[in-house]
C-alpha cells in the first residue's frame, strides 16, 4: 500500500474547485464581480476598451489578495509594509563609539587648556 504525501507539509493546500483554494476562489469571484460590474456600468458611456482599462486597476488588487504570497504574507500585508517603509520610516542615526571617544578626548584637552590658562 502506497500513500502519497507532499514532501513539504507546510506548503500543502487543499483545493476546492479547479485546483483553487477557498481563499483563491473567493478573491477570484470578487475580482470578477468588481471588474465585470465596472465594465457593465461604464461601457455605454466610455466604450468597451476604456471600460476595461478602468476595471483593471480595481480588479487586479482584489485578485492579487487571493493569489499573491511572499514569505507567508498576503498581498495586502506586503503592500502595507512597503508603503510604511517608503513613506513612514523614521531615519536611523548611527553614532560610532570612535566618534564619542574622539569628542571626549577633545573635551578633556579643552578642559586641560582652561586649567593651565587659569593658573
TrEMBL record:
Residues 105-119 have a biased composition (Basic residues). This is PrgI family protein. Residues 98-119 are annotated as: Disordered. InterPro entries: Uncharacterised_PrgI (IPR024414). It comes from Laedolimicola intestinihominis. Keywords: Membrane, Transmembrane, Transmembrane helix. It comes from the Bacteria. The chain crosses the membrane at residues 25-46, 52-76.
Amino acid at each position: 500500500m502506497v500513500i502519497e504525501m507532499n514532501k513539504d507539509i507546510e506548503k500543502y493546500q487543499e483545493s476546492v474547485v479547479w485546483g483553487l483554494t477557498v481563499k483563491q476562489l473567493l478573491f477570484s469571484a470578487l475580482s470578477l464581480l468588481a471588474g465585470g460590474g465596472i465594465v457593465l456600468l461604464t461601457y455605454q458611456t466610455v466604450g468597451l476598451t476604456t471600460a476595461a482599462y478602468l476595471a483593471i486597476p480595481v480588479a487586479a488588487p482584489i485578485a492579487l489578495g487571493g493569489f499573491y504570497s511572499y514569505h507567508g504574507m498576503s498581498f495586502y500585508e506586503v503592500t502595507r509594509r512597503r508603503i510604511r517603509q517608503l513613506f513612514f520610516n523614521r531615519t536611523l542615526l548611527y553614532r560610532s563609539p570612535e566618534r564619542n571617544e574622539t569628542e571626549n578626548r577633545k573635551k578633556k584637552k579643552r578642559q586641560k587648556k582652561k586649567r593651565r590658562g587659569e593658573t
